[in-house]
Amino acid sequence: MPETADRDANHPLRARLDDVFGRYQRLRSDVDDIQRRLAEVRISAESEDGLIRATVGPRGQLLDLRLDRRIYRDMDAGRLSHAIVETTARAAELAAAEVQRLMAGYLPVDSGPMRYLRDDDLGSLLHRQDAAMREADPGHG
């Protein structure tokens, strides 16, 4: 009887492990497809007046910049540079959201890599390892 009770008590843990393992297997088998899909990410944003169009890649890198010729009539160099930076930043934010959307099907929401993509916090990649180290050596944490 105790063996059955132990098995029942471990059922939620086993289900979680099966879920994580299934996601890992899917990620491993789909890694080429994910890399291709991420490399194909191209996101564009326009300035509020529609005179600037910035296109960025998956890491927010500027790939293309289009300036309508009417822009030179209304803006000085300072305003123009500010508008370009603002438009490019908006495109980069949209690209980051698209990368998160693509990866969400492969990684748990609370995983270090997803937190890094969402929060841009490199420390989130080591969060679990830090916790394990503090637990293993309580005198140093």
UniProtKB/TrEMBL annotation:
Keyword DNA-binding on entry: yes
Coiled coil: none
InterPro entries per record: YbaB-like_sf, YbaB/EbfC
Keyword field: DNA-binding
SUPFAM superfamilies tied to this protein: YbaB-like
Keyword DNA-binding on entry: yes
GO molecular function: DNA binding
Record's protein name: DNA-binding protein YbaB
